[in-house]
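User: Fold this; tokens only.

Assistant: Input:
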Amino acid sequence: MSDTTTDTDIRPSRTADYFALLKPRVMSLVVFTAAIGLLVAPGSIHPLNAIAAIFLIAIGGGASGALNMWWDADIDTLMRRTANRPVPAGRVSAEAARNFGLVLSVASVALLGLVTNWAAAAMLGFTIFFYVVIYTMWLKRSTPWNIVIGGASGAFPPVIGWLAVTGSLSFEAIAMFALVFMWTPPHFWSLSLFMNDDYSRAKVPMLTVTHGRAATRKQILIYALLLVPTSLALAVSSIGGVVYLAIALWLNFRFACGAFKLWKRDEAQAKADGYQAEKSFFKLSLLYLFGLFVGLLIEITLRHLGLSAVGWLQLI
């Protein structure tokens, strides 16, 4: 990939620009799901090691973001949503972003192995590779199903958190992975419904670009329905319970209703109102994933307090 800026175009970099390379909003989701994966895992880990593990997983996620910005600088300049990122805006050179990402990648994987175990470190390394090479360099520009397959990279953090404690996989870790994996396409497809012009301009083959918005709305509904059994599987696992089940049922009802509303939307109406329903669904998708992982956190907290769901309800 060629740089999109010359040396004379690069303005002095600031600390804030390098922090922006880490994609902090995406990193926050990585930190959250990884932390829940670590907290609900059976076994024990020293609090300082746990904090260090979450920090290193965050750094690994940020390294992926920096490498993504290095590779995608050419198309980022064409999209309004990304044009002000440090590399396309000329505040950080593409080479500096690449080197920054590579150093953080190696450091985060190596240190996580030393702090926890090499199974967790290997999964973090594979996650970075998958996001940068499989998704960013290959799938993103070659297939409309880019986010379906590439979304696996965002589903690995809770598994890494689980491995950091246990050193091995289980049904619960796989179920958390499946939840985030199935959630990712409708989340990003709802974004593409109101950001389609950006993707078209950059020639990124998102589903909205290659198959149209109507087909994308249908796929969002299909995935919303598939998320029901996927999310409920965790309710019957060792980390689920009545509280999680109640939260999951409520969120799935809202999510499915929102997806059905999008599916029934007339495109002319959607364009006329500025894709407000699509933007609302995008926000709802964030609430959906956040709420489900909070449900898991509540369940493990109740167990640590020695309370059942019934006993907890009696207390309040």
